[in-house]
Amino acid sequence: MRVRPFFWCLLVLSCASVLIFAATTDTYAPALMRVHIQRHPAPASFTTLELHLTDFQGLPIEKAQISSSARMTNMDMVTYESRVKEVGQGVYIAQLHLYMAGPWKITFRAQADGSAPLHQSLLVEVV
After folding, report:
1. Cα–Cα distance measured from residue 96 to residue 87, given in angstroms and rounded to the nearest whole number
2. Hey, how many other C-beta atoms are within 10 angstroms of the C-beta on 86?
3. Neighbour count for residue 96 (Cβ, 10 Å)
4. Which helix (H) or strand (E) holds 85?
5. 34-40 LR contacts (CB < 8 Å, sep 24+)
6. CA gyration radius, the chain
7. Beta 102-111 vs 65-72: how paired, if at all?
8. Cα distance between residue 69 and residue 84, in whole Å
9. For the chain, is the Cβ count within 10 Å smaller at the N or the C terminus?
10. What one-character-per-residue DSSP string does 24-44 give?
11. CA separation (Å) from 92 to 18, 29, 68, 80, 82?
12. Count of alpha carbons within 13 Å of 72, Cβ hemisphere only?
């Protein structure tokens, strides 16, 4: 039995397309983000939070792009003053200015090369 050249070309084309797809697709490793409040938040002052970024093997993730935002859950108020600083060994310090007392929802987003994007929210009561 003889196989026609068309089918050989179809086989080569499908194998090449699978290899090209596998080579160009980015795979992301899962990561873990832990957030810890260093001291109880007070109104009209900066709230300091400590973030730990690690992969699932426990190795620290450095040079991540982290953004933070905070909004009140019971009214339309957001914070515009926030900053994140890398300390090292996968530790980041975030400071947010929570303007008034009440319930706040703080959201963190982190992205590092080679790891999956992270998203974590934290509910905080400012008194």
Report:
1. 17
2. 15
3. 22
4. strand 82-88
5. 35/108, 35/120, 35/122, 37/122, 37/124, 40/127
6. 23
7. antiparallel
8. 11
9. N
10. H----B-EEEEEEESS---TT
11. 40, 20, 12, 19, 13
12. 14
* Sequential pLDDT tens for the chain (127 residues): 677 889 989 999 999 999 999 888 877 777 888 888 877 788 777 888 999 999 888 889 889 999 999 999 999 889 888 899 999 999 999 998 888 899 999 999 998 887 778 889 999 998 8
Question: Phi/psi of residue 125, each to 5°?
Answer: -105, 115
Token pair 């040079």: residue? 63
Judge whether 69 and 92 are in contact, CB under 8 Å: no
DSSP 42-75: -TTEEEEEEEEEEETTS-B--S-EEEEEEEESSS
pLDDT score for 38:
73
Nearest alpha-carbon partner for 104 in 80, 84, 75 = 75
